[in-house]
Amino acid sequence: MNDTKSKWTYPLILWALGIALAAAIVLSVTLGRYPIRLKELCGILLSKVVPMEPFWSKTQASLLLQHRLPRILLACMVGCCLSAAGAAYQGVFQNPMAAPDILGASSGAAFGAALAILLHLSSSMIILLAFSSSLFTVTLVIFFGERAKGTRVLGLILSGIMVSSLMSSGTSFIKLVADPTDQLPAITYWLMGSLNGSAPKDVLFALFPMALGLVPLLLLRWRINILTLGDAEAQSMGVNARRLRILVILSATLVTAASVSVSGVIGWVGLVIPHLARRMVGNNYRYLMPASMLLGALFLLLVDDVSRNLLATEIPLGILTSLIGAPFFICLIMKGGDKV
Amino acid sequence: MSLEVRGLSFAYGEHSVLEDVSFSLEDGQMLSVLGPNGVGKSTLFHCILGLLTPQAGEILVNGQNIRLLSSRALAQKIAYIPQSHSPTFNFSVLDMVLMGTTAQLSYFSAPGKPQLESAQAVLEQLGISHLAQRGYAHISGGERQLCLIARAMVQQARILILDEPSANLDYGNRIRVMQTLRALAAEGYGVIQSTHDPDQAYLYSDRILALSRGKVLAWGSPRDTISNSLISRLYGVEVEVCSLREDTFRVCVPAAQRANKKGVTLC
Fold this sequence. Notes:
The complex is a heterodimer of chains A (340) and B (267). By secondary structure, chain A is mainly alpha-helical. Chain A contains 14 helices and no strands. Chain B is an alpha/beta fold and 267 residues long. Helices cover 32% and strands 27% of the residues of chain B. Chain B has ten helices and 13 strands. In chain B, the strands form three sheets. Chain B has a six-stranded mixed beta sheet with strand order 6-7-8-3-9-10, sandwiched between helices. In chain B, strands 2-1-4-5 form a four-stranded antiparallel beta sheet, covered by helices on one side. In chain B, strands 12-11-13 form a three-stranded antiparallel beta sheet. Chain B starts with a strand and ends with a strand.
């Protein structure tokens, strides 16, 4: 590969992913049991800016704005965040198997959501409790991990495993005492992950913490490369490894917590997508991070389209992502071979 | 740029590793640190790099205590070249070298055109520009070592610290890496390496620092230090040091093998 080629290949791939994502978003709007065509989509959106005579039904407008569009946006946002967090965690832990739930963000959110369902709280409170419980869990993990004897990275991972399992046992206990006629199914359904019933307020809730986490991840993406070499090397190159790692972990945790709290537990995206992105643009986070974000958004959007259109009843997202993710990952590792 | 280490002592808890270590290094000099495994060579390097804080003594770069320098400022004076390793993720050689420019960049930025040009120039100088787009994991040990040296050079530090640069290298690459380091010293870099090869240390370096149980056993020019008694004491094996070509080379031979061979002078 010569210099000029490689200089333009990766930015081009990023553009191609961006265009594919935009196309997928438009396509997704037209998919669904209740038909909304491209013409109506443009009309409904434009009518918000310029006044025009409606040529669409009221049902179409409210379905689009209250349900379909928020759900599409949320699928993109959650997919983007989970894969960005996965890529970030893989870098800071120097571990290609790291996923967004490595520090217990998912199990923490699951516990919070289960608790909220048990206490008959409203849907907004479920999201809020899931989010705070997720952040609390990771704070706990970092607190213990930083005080562990030996290597910091290992301490964090081990403390993540322990606190996660503590939270999972809490969730199991809640399932045990929950009312089996209505609460238990609700908890189980939440744990399987779904974007069913997404509303504009969910988008608004998730938007702020997601942006707050994604921006630093994008800005710090070059430095994440240096973290993957280990503390001693990073430090000798003038990078404060410890501070940078905490910063990246906090950002990745924030976006994971925001994702999980609105969508439930969706596995595999954060592990598989960064690996697929590595195959496309190499391991340099300068390209890997944006590629993971775009690819993650595209992937989860398509999976969610399948989830809501394939069968008469919704298939929970978590089930589909594992169903697609696991065999796909096996293919990836069997094919082997790095990008460069 | 000069490096001066004065009365350095370091201990992990109760376990003392370095005791009262002093030496200095001028511009353009190459220093070899000799000593058995576990003697504290890596600890010494980590102290100089500011990764560990010594309990006593001071480390001065150009007369300035490194404790007063930020890690960023220190990185622009001293660079570290680890043993050629295989990192978790396979970066291209060019990306690996560009990482050395990070200390010059502001917190949120990535290397731009000037950094790219300096990286390409250094790769050219070391004769490995053809490797730029290759994966670091897919090149040979010698090439990796050169790549890490390139990374240290773009870091713009003038003191290079190498942890056993010739370990795990084949014979040809070992010589290639040593000659590269010698050439860098000639350009004005101060080079510190740890090595297990006294012959090589004699041939390439200007100064020898021999460490035994955390203390300085010998410090001085190779001619004054590399001798039967020092090498035998240092590694605990009987060795005879033979001199060749008017003392241009000194070769260590295990005493048991030397007994009935004739024709070389002993030191």
